[in-house]
Design brief:
- By secondary structure, the chain is of the alpha/beta class.
- The protein has 5 domains: 2-83 and 640-662, no CATH class; 90-219, Rossmann fold; 226-347, Sandwich (Immunoglobulin-like); 353-535, Class I glutamine amidotransferase (GATase) domain (Rossmann fold); 544-615, Immunoglobulin-like (Sandwich).
- The radius of gyration is 42 Å and the shape is flat.
- The relative contact order is 0.11.
């Protein structure tokens, strides 16, 4: 047992006061009494067989002493020691391994400086018989060593050297929160643990027992291309780039190389164009550089206008297509760039893949034509969609075939096929047509019902479509060969089906647009768009990503291959879709894929860049995570106050009994 507040034992002086009271208290009283009272009192004492007055007085005094002693002990906070609070010299070193730590000055990276300082700290800690843990804070922080003593000194030196040799500093962002959460078990066992965070970032708030060691150099300067994009406006491309000069004020020259300018298709080499413009950079402000046909800054604020520089193309410089655009710095003045990995930026996607659609109908439907034109416009940034509605064109060489009413004798095998209101069953479709069901006009119209499968999610074909709003007055019963998925039914009969496998890609709508309210609702163009996305998915949703981000891949074919053009990055075969991949190295990557129905698909290039936040080599952030929870003394002691209080109450009750007996 231990007393947490020993001064409370001064309450024992109450026992001394009690003794003094008993000494000074007179043992008799002077008063007049009658002879009868004296006679009764003497008779009372004579009747008692055993004299107990002295024993009772002793017990009464003992209870009072114990009550005072217990009260004094309660003031001193008695506890049972469960475990001793650690007093060891314990240290945790966290090394920031984010991309900005790759910045260097005089040939030494910030990451190297951090590692060397950790080794110096280890010498000090181990020299004082302390223990040390080291955490490498990359995108997935891990312990390099944990709670090691001086016997692990040589191993720590080897591990740190391996970090430097194997270039373990990432090109992405560090998960600082996860790194500090790894410390929680150690600091919970020893709240006196000191944490050193070796980084290049300044924090406005740092928790207690955490020391931020900034390893950046005041002479470091970084010119960076933070991001860039190309948008198609008024028939020509407009290129927008965001750049900054961190650590200095001055003029930089941004160069733009356009390859394959105005190429007709992927086989056309096009022209090569080169542009450059000087940009004034100051106060670490992000500057916007725009290469365009005409200046358009009406929607910009005054501050945005001040930080925007324009290069206006002349008639000979404009381009409506490109194969690649490379942005780089051509001139940095007298500055030495400390971080070269963000000095270039590549833009791809300027040569669109052509999608050929054939619409065949014995009675052209303006709603179908309108929906196709909407598709053409909506996907204009990703695809170049050509639409043909000639009945004389052979059913071959198209990517999508739409047949309405009149069906071909044989189903095309080289593209996606939509069958709207089929009047016959094409060979190879796997469909058997039955009778027509007439529901009796608008009064008997029935809504479509979604056919759900508990084992699979809702089909993307029905995204943002409420089937109960779609009414049908007439449809055709049909059977399929089991290769179709039924999405919707009417009165229990399947009316909307899809098939999507390696053998065929077919969508079937078993009713005419003349016998439904579907064309009058927004659901129809939405359905057409969903069908297009379902059968013709984009391989990727962007042409550039940041290191460490998750990239979603899709394919119309059975497989694709992702390779790094530098040869040092990812080399991955993907066989199932949709699939995802995270890339750890910046640079240009190429996607090679075989198109559906053995058609050649053009290669796709995309760019992976350093996260823009890592380019700011003088970043200031708000606060570091606090791994220290409030220290609770009950983690080390068991409070005995409740037991002591119970004993005091027991003695008080015993004293009351003795006092009661004395007065009887």
């Amino acid at each position: 047992m231990r007393f947490l507040t020993p001064l409370g034992l001064l309450g024992l002086l109450g026992i001394l006061v009690l003794i003094i009271i008993y000494i000074l208290r007179p043992n008799y009283q002077q008063k007049f009494v009658s002879s009868t009272y004296i006679w009764k009192l003497s008779l009372k004492y004579r009747k008692k067989r055993i004299p107990t007055s002295k024993l009772r007085d002793l017990l009464l005094i003992l209870c009072q002493v114990l009550i005072l002693a217990g009260s004094a002990a309660a003031l001193a906070t008695p506890v049972q020691v469960l475990r001793e609070q650690p007093t060891d010299n314990e240290v945790i070193a966290i090394i920031d391994a984010s991309a900005s730590m790759r910045a260097q000055y005089n040939g030494e990276m910030r990451f190297e400086r951090a590692c060397n300082r950790v080794l110096s700290l280890a010498d000090t800690v181990f020299g004082n018989d302390g223990t040390m843990s080291v955490i490498v804070a990359n995108d997935d922080p891990v312990y390099l060593i944990r709670e090691a003593d001086r016997s692990a000194s040589a191993q720590l030196n080897d591990d740190i050297n391996d970090l430097l040799i194997s270039d373990m500093c990432t090109y992405g962002s560090a998960n600082v929160e996860e790194a500090f959460s790894l410390c929680e078990d150690v600091v919970a066992a020893n709240p006196a643990t000191k944490i050193y965070f070796y980084t290049d970032t300044t924090y406005t708030y740092v928790p207690n027992n955490v020391e931020v060691v900034n390893v950046s150099d005041s002479n470091e300067i970084n010119a960076s291309i933070l991001d860039a994009s190309a948008t198609f406006e008024s028939g020509y491309y407009r290129v927008t780039a965001h750049i900054a000069l961190f650590g200095a004020n001055g003029t930089v020259r941004l160069k733009m190389n356009v390859n394959g300018a105005n190429a007709v298709d992927i086989n056309d080499p096009g022209d090569s164009r080169e542009f450059s413009i000087d940009v004034e950079c100051y106060d670490d402000q992000v500057q916007t550089v725009v290469f365009c046909v005409e200046r358009n800054d009406e929607d910009l604020s005054e501050e945005e206008k001040e930080n925007t520089t324009y290069y206006i193309f002349n008639d000979a410089e404009r381009f409506y297509s490109y194969q690649s655009i490379l942005l780089s710095f051509d001139y940095l003045g007298d500055f030495e760039d400390c971080f070269m990995d963000d000095d270039t930026f590549s833009i791809y996607g300027g040569q669109k893949e052509v999608i050929n659609i054939k619409y065949s109908s014995s009675l052209k439907n303006p709603f179908v034509t309108s929906a196709l034109l909407s598709l053409q416009n909506y996907y204009s940034n990703n695809w170049e969609i050509h639409i043909s509605d000639s009945l004389d064109t052979p059913n071959e060489g198209f990517d999508i075939y739409i047949f309405e009413h009149e069906m071909p004798q044989t189903l095309p095998r080289d593209g996606v096929v939509f069958l709207f209101d089929p009047l016959s069953s094409p060979s190879g479709s796997g469909l058997t047509l039955r009778n027509i069901v007439d529901l009796g006009g608008t009064e008997g119209a029935m809504p479509l019902e979604e056919v759900t499968n508990d084992d699979s999610p809702r089909s993307p074909v029905l995204n943002n479509i409420n089937l109960t709003d779609i009414l049908v007055t007439r449809y055709r019963r049909l059977d399929d060969d089991g290769t179709y998925e039924t999405l919707a039914s009417c009165d229990g009969d399947p009316v909307l089906l899809v098939r999507n496998d390696d053998e065929a890609k077919i969508a079937v709508m078993a009713f005419s647009l003349h016998y439904t309210n579907l064309p009058l609702k927004a659901a129809f163009p939405r359905l057409m768009s969903n069908l297009f996305s379902y059968f013709m998915p984009s391989t990727i949703d962007s042409n550039y990503y940041e290191v460490g981000s998750t990239i979603e891949f899709n394919s119309r074919g059975s497989s694709l291959k992702v390779t790094s053009e530098s040869g040092s990055g990812v080399n991955e075969d993907i066989m199932s879709f949709p699939s995802s991949l995270s890339i750890d190295l910046p640079g240009t990557y190429r996607i090679e894929q075989m198109g559906v129905f053995d058609k050649d698909a053009p290669d796709i290039q995309f760019y992976v860049k350093i996260p823009a936040a890592e380019s700011n080599t003088r970043a200031v952030l708000d606060a570091l995570p606090d791994p220290f929870v409030s220290e609770n003394q009950y983690d080390y002691f068991n409070d005995l106050l409740i037991y002591l209080a119970a004993a005091i109450v027991a003695f008080l009750f015993l004293e009351w009994i003795l006092q009661l007996r004395d007065n009887m």
